[in-house]
Amino acid sequence: MNNPIISFVSQLADQEQIAWLALLSAKLPYECIKLDKDLSAVEKTQCEIAIVANPDPIILSQYSKLIWIQSLWAGVDALVTQLTDNKPLPSFKLIRLIDPLLAQTMSEAVLTWVLYLHRDMPKYLKQQNSSQWIQHHYLRPQERTVGVLGLGKLGELSAMRLNENGFNVLGWSQSQKLIHGVGCYSGDDGLITMVKQCNIIICLLPLTSDTYQLIDNNLLKNLPQGASLINFARGGIVANEDLIQQLDSDHLEHAILDVFEQEPLNKNDAFWSHKDITVLPHISAPTHFESAGDIVAENICKYRLNGSLPVSIDWNKGY
Ligand code: NAP
Question: How far, in Å, are 49, 54, 296, 297, 299 from residue 304 at the CA level?
Answer without folding.
Answer: 11, 25, 12, 11, 9
